Amino acid sequence: MLHVVLVEPEIPPNTGNIARLCLAAGARLHLVEPLGFSLEEKALRRAGMDYWEQCDVKVWPSLDALQADAGDARFFYFTTKASRIYWDERFQDGDHLVFGRETRGLPESLLAANGDRCVTIPMQENARSLNLATSAGIALYEAMRQLARP
Ligand SMILES: C[S@@+](CC[C@H](N)C(=O)[O-])C[C@H]1O[C@@H](n2cnc3c(N)ncnc32)[C@H](O)[C@@H]1O
């Protein structure tokens, strides 16, 4: 199974869309607190449609807590600040695809400590970043495409 990790997500419709994405893709969604909304938020449920109750969602007090539970699993950090392109990575079953908060992205310290696991989705120079849910969709389906390879 593939895993999508949202670190401190802030905007309910983004998380709702990603929950729906993960359900469709058969992936698990991990939410790292603090969240910028309540899990009861109407906008979250609306974006996740009536699928929310079926989604495989886990909430963690910190990324450290998730990583301690994940054992040897690999974590890939999606950021605008890396040079390695995500499609050059070779994803494996059990990989965790990590995304940052909408306003600030992933912490610099986390990126610095995991430089060899930071990847980017290429953009034109005049684009600052992609939407969080768009990024998660691109990344998750590339990982799925690779895993489906004979
Ligand atoms: C709206 S963006 C955050 C923007 C923030 N100002 C920054 O520069 O990181 C939210 C998250 O989407 C993901 N993201 C957005 N665009 C991306 C890109 N081109 N490559 C990789 N990840 C991206 C990252 O995980 C990012 O933390």
Automatic annotation (TrEMBL):
Binding site for S-adenosyl-L-methionine: G100, I121, S129
Every tRNA/rRNA methyltransferase SpoU type domain range: 2-141
Location in the cell: Cytoplasm
Keyword Cell membrane among UniProt keywords: no
Annotated Gene Ontology cellular component terms: cytoplasm
Keywords: Cytoplasm, Methyltransferase, S-adenosyl-L-methionine, Transferase, tRNA processing
InterPro entries: Alpha/beta_knot_MTases, SpoU_MeTrfase, TrmL, tRNA_m1G_MTases_N
Biological processes per GO annotation: wobble position ribose methylation
CDD domains found in the cross-reference section: SpoU-like_TrmL (cd18094)
Pfam families: SpoU_methylase
Source organism, top-level taxon: Bacteria
Catalysed transformations (reactions): 5-carboxymethylaminomethyluridine(34) in tRNA(Leu) + S-adenosyl-L-methionine = 5-carboxymethylaminomethyl-2'-O-methyluridine(34) in tRNA(Leu) + S-adenosyl-L-homocysteine + H(+); cytidine(34) in tRNA + S-adenosyl-L-methionine = 2'-O-methylcytidine(34) in tRNA + S-adenosyl-L-homocysteine + H(+)
UniProt family annotation: Belongs to the class IV-like SAM-binding methyltransferase superfamily. RNA methyltransferase TrmH family. TrmL subfamily.
Function recorded in the entry: Could methylate the ribose at the nucleotide 34 wobble position in tRNA.
Alphabetical list of HAMAP family matching this protein: tRNA_methyltr_TrmL
Name of this protein: Putative tRNA (cytidine(34)-2'-O)-methyltransferase
Protein source organism: Terrimicrobium sacchariphilum
